[in-house]
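REQUEST ID: PR-0412
SUBMITTED BY: lab tech R.K.
PRIORITY: routine
TASK: structure prediction, single protein chain
INPUT:
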Amino acid sequence: MKSQKGCSQAEKVGKFRYLNRKVDRLTEEMRKLRGMQEARFRVLFNALRPLFAEVDSEYIVGVVCEDEADVALLDYLRSNGDAGITPSEASAAGELRKFRFKPYHVTRRVQRMNRRLQRELGKPLAESIMRRWVLTSFVLRAFGLSKSDLERMPEEEFEEKLLE
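STATUS: complete
OUTPUT:
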């Protein structure tokens, strides 16, 4: 009796399609492993948070901002404090005019920054309240007082805050 050798999977579906499926399968496995690793990091971070100092503003800027437009948008968000910003206000703002943002650019950038911080620390950067983007309390604590708070604060009160 003759032993029959069957066709390989690459021969059946074609080499390109076979390799493409293999890459897709490996990519999916890597995503699952990365997700498990991020979940473990978040659990560890949340468990050890009381032992370490709060997250500082430079760390958040480093994680969230990819370019100078992100930094400028975050700075503008921070300067508006609790009032927040609408995407149309931000696109018309003088500080952000050089980036030529359209309202949907502002929304997409804030969402991307949210996603990056969510991935890293499990907390969002800003939340949309009544169509206005407002920084979360976690980020406000990390940044300290906003610029508008500093501008409105009397000089004596400012010195007291610095001494604390």
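NOTES: The chain has a mean pLDDT of 82.
REVIEWED BY: pending
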